[in-house]
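Listing S7. Sequence submitted for prediction.
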Amino acid sequence: MKYKVKRKQQVSKGCFICGTENHESLKTKFYELENNELMSISTPTPTHQSYPDRMHGGIISAILDEVIGRSIMILEPDAWGVTVELNIKYKKPVPLSKQVKATARITRNTRLIFEGTGEILLEDGTVAATAYAKYVKMPIEKLIQDTGGDMSLMIDDETPSPEEVEY
């Protein structure tokens, strides 16, 4: 199914998942969709390997943690998720050097905590891993203040956003 992209989320310079200046990063992009889900698109390299030609399970977990944790920004643009609990179910191996999509949505949202689910999708749409996670909300301003007030923590990525994505 195709979904229109409402907004592209900012990324950071140093993050392992989305960092634009981290040479080991997956360089993941995040897109808020019209159905209020968040989609990420990554291309793993041999740096992200476990067994030959397979993405490491910890990196799969990190992608799911990031995409679910960021999904709160669709509803609350100034919030950030700090992980409390993360449960992963691995179903299929994720190959390297091929585009990997992850989708996530909020399933419960209170004043201080939110919960969500997500999945890793292979190029053919097959679900490779699923996740459930719980987060404490943190204002992005507090996160920036706690890291020394460095506003370069979150930057606008200049890569054009697609008008729609499919999964």
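Caption to Listing S7: primary sequence and predicted structure tokens for the chain studied. The helical segments are 57-70, 72-75, 140-146. Residues 2-160 form a domain with the Thiol Ester Dehydrase; Chain A fold (CATH 3.10.129.10).
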